[in-house]
Every structure is written in C-alpha cells, then in structure tokens.
Amino acid sequence: TAGILCLAGAETTGTVRQVAQNYGLPVTAVTTLEDAMAQIPKGPWMAVVAALGTRRGVDLLFDRSGRSESSLILAAKQLEPPPLVAVFSWTACEKKNVSSRCRRAGADGVICSAEGLIDLLVAPAPRILCLAGEETTATVKSVASTFNYTVVRVSTNQDALDQVCNKGPWGAVVAALGTTPADLIFDGAADRSTLISTVKKLQPSPTMVVFSHTACKYSGMAQACTDAGADAVMCTPEALERLILSIQASRASFLRDTSSSDHPPEPGAAEIEDETPAGQLAIYKTTADYPVVALRIEQNRALERSLGSSHRALKNLNEFLDDMIQMIESLPRSLTVSSLCTPPPVRFVHVSDTHHHHKNVYLPEGEVLLHTGDLVGNYGDRDIQKHLSDFLDWLVKMSSRFQLIAIIAGNHDTLLDEERYPREAAKVKRAFLSQLPSNVRYLEHTGVEYQGLKIWGSPTVCCREETLGKRYLSNAFERRRAERQQIWSQIPEGLDVLMTHVPPHRILCSSDCGCELLLNRLKQLSQPPLFHCFGHDHDYYGVKASSSVNTIFINGALEEVRRMDRGAEGCGWVFDIPRRDVLMRAPSMASND
Questions:
Q1: Are 17 and 26 in contact (CB under 8 A)?
Q2: CA 406-409-415 angle, 5° bins
Q3: 475: helix, coil or strand?
Q4: How many Cβ atoms from other residues are within 10 Å of residue 480's Cβ?
Q5: Do the beta carbons of residue 205 and residue 169 sit within 8 Å?
Q6: How many helices (H) and strands (E) does the chain have?
Q7: What distance in Å separates the CA atoms of residue 348 and residue 299, rounded to the nearest whole number?
Q8: DSSP annotation of 105
Q9: Is residue 235 exposed (0-12), middle (13-18) or buried (19+ Cβ within 10 Å)?
Q10: Closest CA to 346 of 369, 366, 371, 370
C-alpha cells in the first residue's frame, strides 16, 4: 500500500500519523534529508510531507538559501506515478514569498494543519446526499448530472444520518429546511442541527448545503443555517452549479503544478512576494498591484493552468476579481499613497470574520493590523475555546510583524461577552486579555491612538431576539435598540478609523443585516471617520464610499471568499492615513480592563 513519507519534527509527524491512521495509510518518518532521499526510491508513496527544516546539512528542505531548488521534491516528482508533495510549515503558510518558493520547487500544497493535509490527500467524492422534496431533488439531480455526480435521495433526518454515518463518502449533503418533525433539519435550538453537526464532524467533511427559498429570502434564517455549520445557503440551480465549480477550484488550488517551466511569469502579473526592502513602504502603482487584486490575479492564473481557461469556475472567480477592481477604481480617493513621501503614512491592514481560518489569510506588510470580529468558528459543535487559544497564538506571532494590532469581537465570539455569557466569559476572557502582547489592544466601546491617529471599536450587533423573535446561540454582543443607541452615541468625532462588527444599514450588507442606528450616528457626526472597517455579512466583502457620509467603508469578511476557493488564501484590505504625531507610540485611550 502506498504510504506517506514524512520528514519533520515530532509534532508535525504526530499530526501526519493521526491523519494517516484515519485512512489506513502507513507512515515512514525520518528526521534527516539523507534518510528521506534514501527512502524515496523505496516507494510507492501516496504523499511526501516535509517541514522546511532548521539544521543546515541535516534537514533543510531547500538546497541553497534563497533558491527554489529542493533535491527531495525533485526526486519525489521523478517517481512514476509521482506522489503528492506537501510542505508542512507555519512559516510557509504565513509568508507569501516562502509559500511561492515552495510551489516553484514543485510542492503540490503548502499546509500547516491536519485539515489542510486531509484536503490535499482526499478528493471530494462525486456523490451528493439529498434530504428534500421531489422538486428540490430534481433540481439537484439536474445540476449533478452535468458533473457526472450521483445523487441519493432520502426523506427523513434519520435516514440522512444513517447515510452520512454509514454509507459515505459524500462530496456534498444538500438539505431543505423541512416541514415535518421527521425532516426538519433544525432539531435543537434555533441554530443547531444534528444532521449538520454530524456532517461537519466527518473527515474529510462534505460540503453542507441548505437549499431553501425561505432561508434565501430572510437573512436571519440564512445566518442561522451558517451558524449551525452549513457551508452555503441557496435556492437556485445556478447557485448549486457555482458551488460545485468552487469545490473543483478549491481542489485545484491545493494541487497547483508550479514545477513546470512551460509557464513563465506573464508580463504585467503583479508580484506578491515580499521583495520590498525592510522598513520601506510598498507602493501599489496600479489597481493590479493592490494586494487584494494582485493575489486573486495570481490565484486565477494558477487555476487556469490547472483547470484550463474554459473551466466555468474561472468565470465566477474572474467576475469576483472584476468586482474588486471596479470597487477600488470607483473610490473618490486612493486607498494607498502612489509615491514615497516623508514621513510615510501609517499603513493599515484590515481583516474580519476569519472564523478560525486566520492561518490561511495573506496579510500584506503594514504598521497596524485591524480585525473586526468573529475570531472563532462557532458553527455547530466546535471547540471555540481552542479556537480562541489558537487565535491568541496567531496574535502573538503577528505582534512581531505589526506595531499595533487592534481587535474587536463578533457575534460568534461568545466567550468574550460577559453580559450574555457571564459564566463562560469569566473563565476565558480575563485569561485571554491578560495574555495579549503589549501592542495588541482589545477594543470594546473603547479606543486607542497610534501616531496621533484615533481608532475606536465596538463588537455590538443587532439583536435577533428583537427582530426575529428567536434567540440564537451565536448571539454574542447582540444588543437591543435602546442599548445600541447608547453605545453608538459614544462614537467620537474626528476618528480616523471606526471598527464595528456590524455594518451600517445598507452599506456593503444585505437590507436586514446592517444597523440603522449606526448609520444614523455616522450621519450625525460633523467629523465622521475617514475609514469604517467591519465584517459580519459574508456576502459583501468589498470597499465603497458613501455620498451621505464622507467615509470609505470596508467589509473585510473573509468567510465567503474562502468558500469560493478554499485552497487559496484570503487577503486583507490595505489603506494609508497620514500620521499626525511622529513622536507618539500607541498610548491607549482606554485600558483592556
């Protein structure tokens, strides 16, 4: 049986062994490059997993410093059939130039988690389980037939659970909301489903789809579905087709063949690699150079080489790219400076709604990192305390890259909401805050100053108990109108950056997702913020200016972007603000206590 050859330390090897055991794959573990090279011809190997290494002449993956050459990867790729090659490294996942170097050397994937290894090794099964009525099932079958997928229909939750647990594997599970006790998928609280939780516990996890006109019509219901763990909510065959195409694109993103010399870099392709001299501000001279655009251009071109230029998944991703370009070019002022100046502006990087996928986010260079909430993946039965601990570890690493990091919570971050969850927050929140590095500030209706620039943040979101009459489990910082009114009244005049989790009403969000009271407060300000950063609504990642408020709004929610192409990194938004006091070094306007 083809197995896995692993050149890594004890921790990574342990992760590889755990994944391999689940699939009955033998693992041969070595600790030196010499031993790995000796094992290569003794295959066959399904995969070769290697860390970057730390000891020159002993376990370093690359032959020479600064070059994209690896004798181990080259030897693996010369086998027939060639195994998958994965570089298992936090550094490579975090730093774009290192990741690109690994792929140029011939690595099929760059990963840093068990989930990433599973995604690399296991292709989605071409089978769909469908819990729905005849009309929805007919729609699913019609779309599935174009991809040669098999559809198995069931009519009750119990039958669906039996199929999921005992008769897989499944590439996707499609379920309607249901109309009777036998087929209702929400069988717990308003946003908890045994079926969805069971599906998401599988490894690899099938794509979970709720197919419902009701859920599509009401964003509160759609959010309940995603809170329960659904990957997508839809009600048209076109949306289902796009989803299957995105699954294919995600698989191709993990398996990009960059070892061939037949595809030299294309003229005009933006370079993402970190080649800007240390301490020097990167200048994005064209829209194509701007990180959100440049990264997607690179990703789309890589997918084109893998899938072919006519693949329909590329059409969707190219449309997404065009939307980003149009948004950026329609702004009344540039997000970043067009030439070097003295003193340079403060460069901000903004992300939101990473939902425990923070390791798969590309952060361009900057001075200040902003995260506007939903740090954890509170979907279904997830260990959100571990998620928060992982996020803290990530913050510690990021604190060496940025002069200041400002974060707020979101509605999924229940462990940080002392008002709604006093018992849970009492155990976790104080410990979380006490372990934050000195340059990381948690904002909760408070602010911080940096280089004379004023930042203020709040995690407050609209209350679904008030608007929908239901209490959801992902309801951290949901506050009723009267309390929101009081909180928003605290937003100061003359801010440079406002950070909220919820968007203002009808700005980069659906009609019933944003907060009207927040928008009203912005209109009341004689000096509104220069930038308003938020997330919450996953479908509206983007940037825009408003004619009623002299502010640039940025929705940094990365969750839906990730679902469009799960094998690719999301990217933070970048913007510049002139520094006002070059002598100031991030004194706090309010403490974390």
A1: no
A2: 130
A3: coil
A4: 12
A5: no
A6: 20, 25
A7: 23
A8: T
A9: middle
A10: 366
Tokens 């296991």 locate to: 122
Q: Global pTM?
A: 0.80
| Spatial contact of 403 and 369, defined as CB atoms under 8 Å apart | no
Q: Per-residue confidence of the chain (593 residues) as pLDDT tens digits?
A: 689 999 999 999 999 999 998 888 899 999 999 999 999 999 889 899 999 998 888 999 998 766 778 999 999 989 888 888 999 998 888 777 888 888 888 888 888 888 888 877 777 788 999 999 999 999 999 999 999 999 999 999 999 999 999 888 898 999 999 999 899 999 866 668 999 999 988 877 889 999 999 999 887 788 888 888 898 999 999 999 988 888 877 767 655 533 333 333 333 333 334 444 556 799 999 999 999 999 999 999 888 887 888 888 888 899 999 999 999 999 999 999 999 888 999 999 999 999 998 988 999 999 999 999 999 987 766 789 999 999 999 999 999 999 999 999 999 999 999 999 999 899 899 999 999 999 999 999 999 999 999 999 999 999 988 887 777 778 999 999 999 999 999 999 999 999 999 999 999 998 888 999 999 999 999 999 999 999 999 989 999 998 778 899 999 999 888 878 877 789 999 999 999 875 444 444 444 44
